[in-house]
């Protein structure tokens, strides 16, 4: 589980960062995230079956059937008169889909170190913001309901310890929050998620009133940005937070400044040559043989 001292990162493009400096953040709906991630908040028939059975247990079969049949264009043959075992995963998927449309999320990466992979996927020529659980909680706007927690990674193989039924048995509240469950294949993300209510019919929620001076502990500038651009961003961010203790610096993946000019001169020579010249002129003798 997430601890207050856990270091959290969010890698983002510059436009998203500028929005955050204004106290705003876009929380996409879970349903919209599914466009690029088919396993987002949907782990198959076993989860759907559990969702349906939980609804029947909580509200009674007749009420559950009434909800599932409301405004639904079911294919011919769906037996809405009883909770048929054959169709419970279908009914449960309807519940999961509805939850996905009505939940908006803000995703963070939990790690003690910055990540080259996260730079490549999410922060290309942008920045990474570092925070922690306490700062994140305090920085969210007051008067609105949010849930912050780790993603639980589920092994979809039935006999495994992380199987969905075992997880729900240990943490029963997750049956109402399937958007905090993902397949174990995504465990490398180490995701921490902030969930809020998404307006019906919307693709997400624009959250305003976030306090960046509380949220942000450190800003790292992408290692992929040219030095001149990075220095400009560093000055702008430093001025924005000049009355706080926020640290702003280049990524640790960037070469030290005293060797950077030397490395750049080597790169210029390499990029300006043909393959034949690289083989015969540039590489040391020891490395010329393929």
List the defining traits of the structure above.
single chain, 290 residues, alpha+beta, 2 domains, two-stranded antiparallel ribbon, 37% helix, globular
Low-confidence stretches: none
Number of domains: 2
Describe the strand arrangement of the main beta sheet, using strand numbers: 5-8-3-1-4-10-11
Beta-sheet strand percentage?
15-25%
Structural class by SSE content: alpha+beta
Q: What can be said about the biggest beta sheet?
A: 7 strands, mixed
Global shape? globular
Taking Cα atoms only, what radius of gyration do you get, to the nearest Å?
Answer: 24 Å
Give helix % range: 25-40%
* Helix run count: 12
Please tally the β strands and state the result: 11
Overall pLDDT confidence: 83
**Span between termini:** 49 Å
* Strand/helix succession: EHEHHHHEHEHEEHEEEHEHEHH
Description of the molecule:
With 290 residues, the chain is of the alpha+beta class. It folds into 2 domains: 7-12 and 25-113 and 139-211, no CATH class; 255-290, no CATH class. The protein has helices at residues 14-21, 30-33, 45-59, 61-69, 88-101, 116-121, 133-139, 164-170, 212-215, 227-240, 260-271, 275-282, and strands at 7-12, 24-28, 103-110, 127-132, 147-150, 152-154, 181-183, 191-197, 204-208, 218-221, 247-250. The strands form 3 sheets. The protein has a 7-stranded mixed sheet with strand order 5-8-3-1-4-10-11. It has a two-stranded antiparallel sheet with strand order 2-9. The chain has a two-stranded parallel sheet with strand order 6-7. Helix 8 links the parallel strand 6 (152-154) and strand 7 (181-183). The two termini are 49 Å apart. The model has no long low-confidence stretch (mean pLDDT 83).
């Amino acid at each position: 589980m997430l601890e207050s001292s856990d270091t959290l990162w969010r890698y983002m493009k510059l436009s998203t960062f500028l929005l955050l400096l204004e106290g705003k953040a876009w929380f996409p709906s879970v349903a919209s995230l599914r466009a690029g991630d088919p396993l987002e908040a949907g782990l198959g028939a076993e989860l759907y079956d559990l969702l349906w059975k939980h609804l029947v247990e909580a509200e009674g079969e007749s009420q559950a059937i009434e909800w599932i049949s409301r405004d639904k264009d079911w294919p011919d043959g769906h037996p809405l008169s009883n909770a048929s075992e054959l169709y419970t995963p279908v009914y449960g998927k309807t519940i999961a889909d509805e939850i996905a449309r009505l939940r908006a999320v803000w995703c963070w990466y939990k790690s003690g170190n910055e990540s080259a992979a996260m730079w490549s996927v999410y922060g290309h020529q942008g920045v990474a913001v570092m925070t922690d659980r306490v700062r994140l909680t305090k920085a969210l706007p007051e008067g609105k309901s949010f849930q912050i927690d780790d993603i639980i990674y589920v092994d979809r193989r039935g006999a495994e310890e992380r199987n969905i039924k075992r997880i729900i048995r240990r943490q029963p509240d997750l049956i109402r929050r399937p958007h905090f469950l993902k397949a174990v294949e995504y465990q490398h993300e180490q995701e921490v998620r902030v969930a809020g209510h998404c307006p019906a019919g919307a693709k997400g929620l624009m959250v305003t009133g976030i306090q960046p001076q509380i949220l942000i502990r450190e800003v790292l500038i992408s290692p992929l940005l040219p030095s001149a651009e990075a220095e400009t961003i560093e000055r702008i961010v430093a001025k924005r937070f000049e009355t706080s203790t926020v640290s702003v610096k280049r990524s640790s993946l960037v070469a030290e400044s005293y060797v950077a000019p030397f490395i750049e001169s080597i790169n210029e020579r390499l990029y300006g040559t043909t393959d034949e010249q690289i083989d015969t002129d540039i590489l040391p003798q020891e490395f010329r043989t393929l």
